[in-house]
Design goal:
The protein is an all-alpha fold. About 75% of the residues lie in helices and about 0% in strands. It is built from 3 helices and no strands.
Length: about 100
């Protein structure tokens, strides 16, 4: 049994790098959307950016790897839900939106 307890990070460098990554993704997003012609491609890129940003926030700011595995899995599902919905809507369009609507 591993008796060493995980502890929150005390260094600011990973936080600053994660924050710069978030800012960079935010600034690059409009240029990617404007530069690519296909709407489906843009939606898939948006889904990927949303997922990456969610993972960065969960890992470096919420420190999800330190919580109970159940909560970690709930957080992973929460982060993946929107990008998955965007991808399904992009790929299956009307049939998926009909299933997902009330």
């Amino acid at each position: 049994m591993d008796t060493s307890a995980r502890k929150p990070a005390t260094s600011l460098q990973p936080l600053v790098l994660a924050w710069l990554g978030l800012v960079g993704l935010t600034l690059v997003s409009p240029q990617l959307g404007a530069g690519l012609g296909g709407q489906d491609t843009v939606q898939l890129i948006v889904a990927a950016i949303i997922w990456i940003k969610g993972r960065l926030v969960a890992r470096y700011f919420i420190e999800a790897e330190l919580v109970h595995p159940f909560l970690r899995n709930v957080l992973r599902f929460f982060i993946a839900f929107t990008p998955i919905a965007i991808v399904l809507t992009t790929l299956f369009g009307d049939s998926f939106t009909r299933l997902a609507s009330l």
